[in-house]
């Protein structure tokens, strides 16, 4: 068996229908996907959940009827939910819904009093992301700024209405460690209330702007729980400019709070290259690294029973968006390979199973089941 195939945790059937047969043709409309050609063709696999009405067909239930060829490489993926024991690992997909000027720690970052007058892009780019996810039959978590939600309430309703998870990215995109405890709490309460009113239910997840929860802000997790969130996704377990908790766990885990409560954490995904932790699955890192490296990093994480957390910003699928003034180094990090984000996102959705972060945390028993 080929290495990639062994890594798969799917409950899969090793099966192949006649390459031009009517059954295969019929499967095309039901989530039929290509797998990379380098996969060993003798372990062509169909995900059991994808069969739908074909599941009981004689052609699938009788291995003698399977027809294997060297060159074929197709896989079917469908909608029917699987239990964790029989499923491929689900990874977390997240979108930080903010504008093109919400880049932190720059002299040119406009102050909030100027935001209303700037050319806006977040609404249209988020709608495009919704279309891309709909095409890929994938759901994600959208961490929305309170400010964005007040300006575009219909956008939040559209995200929620399409079956995605609406979560919170704070209110005004301020850095946690610059706010202090009281201002941080006020910011979170305002944003959570705005978002909760729009979706008509509790908002479970929070992500700090710039992953700005540090070892120096231990009160932040207490505040997040006190405001009512059930999980956080702000920990960046590697060195980084605005954030970074370099020795934090790489797996989803729980913060133990001083009052005995717990807060689930879905950290960003990093690879370990020797003793160095390197991010590859979101933002500038996702844009910078070639797709095969990203895919291999997520496969390695999944092989270690670790779901990946991928994050994208709406501006990153819009290479024509306005730019802020900044140094050459920051310009590289902020804008490198913008044209690669959308193709990489489409490939990720095709190559891996993704779900909203809350669902992945439930898969792992870190969040109580949905009401
Ligand atoms: Zn942000």
Question: Could you provide a short overview of the structure?
Answer:
The chain is α/β, with parallel strands linked by helices and 371 residues long.
Supply the CATH superfamily name of the largest domain: Glycoside hydrolase/deacetylase
Mean pLDDT: 80
What is the alpha-carbon Rg in Å?
A: 21 Å
Largest sheet: 5 strands, parallel
Low-confidence stretches: 1-18, 30-53, 65-87
Could you please say which CATH topology of the largest domain applies here?
A: TIM Barrel
The number of helical segments is 14
Task: Tally the structural domains.
Answer: 2
What general form does the structure show? Answer: globular
Instruction: Identify the bound ligands.
Output: zinc ion
Q: Could you give the distance between the termini?
A: 42 Å
Fraction of residues in helix? 25-40%
Order of helices and strands: HEHEEHEEHEHHEHHEHEEEEEHHEHHEH
Q: Given the helix and strand composition, which structural class is it?
A: alpha/beta
Account of the protein in words:
This protein has 371 residues and is α/β, with parallel strands linked by helices. It has two domains: 3-79, no CATH class; 84-363, Glycoside hydrolase/deacetylase (TIM Barrel, Alpha-Beta Barrel). 33% of the residues lie in helices and 15% in strands. It contains 14 helices and 15 strands. It has helices at 3-7, 22-27, 58-61, 122-135, 146-151, 153-161, 176-179, 181-199, 219-227, 283-288, 291-303, 328-335, 341-351, 357-363, and strands at 12-14, 32-34, 45-47, 74-76, 90-97, 141-144, 165-168, 205-206, 231-232, 253-256, 262-265, 270-273, 276-279, 309-312, 353-355. Strands 5, 6, 7, 14 and 15 form a five-stranded parallel β-sheet that branches. Strands 8-9-11-10 form a four-stranded mixed β-sheet, with helices on both faces. Strands 1-3 form a two-stranded antiparallel sheet. α9 (219-227) links the parallel β8 and β9. It is globular and about 55 Å long. The two termini are 42 Å apart. The site of zinc ion has 6 residues, from loops. Zinc ion is lined by residues 96, 98, 102, 169, 173, 209.
């Amino acid at each position: 068996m080929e290495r990639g195939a062994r890594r798969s945790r799917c409950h899969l059937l090793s099966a192949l229908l006649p390459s031009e047969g009517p059954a295969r043709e019929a499967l095309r409309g039901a989530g039929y996907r290509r797998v990379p050609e380098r996969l060993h063709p003798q372990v062509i696999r169909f995900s059991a959940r994808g069969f739908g009405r074909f599941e009981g067909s004689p052609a699938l239930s009788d291995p003698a009827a399977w027809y294997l060829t060297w060159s074929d490489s197709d896989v079917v993926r469908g909608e029917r939910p699987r239990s964790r024991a029989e499923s491929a690992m689900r990874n977390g997909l997240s979108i930080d819904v903010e504008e093109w000027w919400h880049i932190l720690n720059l002299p040119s970052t406009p102050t909030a009093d100027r935001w209303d007058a700037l050319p806006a892009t977040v609404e249209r780019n988020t709608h495009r992301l919704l279309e891309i996810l709909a095409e890929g039959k994938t759901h994600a978590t959208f961490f929305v700024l309170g400010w964005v939600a007040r300006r575009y309430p219909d956008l939040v309703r559209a995200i929620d209405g399409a079956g995605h998870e609406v979560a919170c990215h704070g209110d005004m995109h301020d850095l946690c460690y610059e706010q202090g405890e009281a201002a941080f709490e006020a910011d979170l309460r305002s944003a959570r209330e705005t978002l909760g009113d729009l979706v008509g239910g509790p908002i479970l997840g929070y992500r700090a702007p710039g992953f700005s929860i540090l070892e120096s802000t231990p009160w932040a997790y207490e505040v997040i729980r006190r405001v009512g969130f059930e999980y956080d996704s702000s920990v960046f377990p590697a060195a980084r400019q605005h954030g970074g908790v370099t020795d934090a766990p790489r797996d989803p885990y729980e913060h133990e709070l001083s009052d005995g409560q717990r807060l689930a954490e879905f950290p960003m995904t990093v690879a370990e290259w020797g003793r160095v932790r390197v991010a590859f699955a979101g933002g500038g890192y996702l844009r910078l690294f070639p797709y095969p490296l990203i895919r291999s990093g997520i496969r390695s994480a999944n092989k270690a029973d670790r779901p990946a957390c991928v994050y994208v910003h709406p501006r990153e699928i819009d290479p024509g968006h306005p730019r802020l003034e900044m140094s050459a180094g920051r310009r590289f990090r902020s804008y490198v390979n913008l044209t690669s984000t959308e193709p990489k996102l489409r490939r990720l959705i095709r190559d891996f199973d993704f779900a909203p972060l809350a669902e992945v945390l439930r898969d792992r028993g870190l969040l109580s089941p949905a009401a």
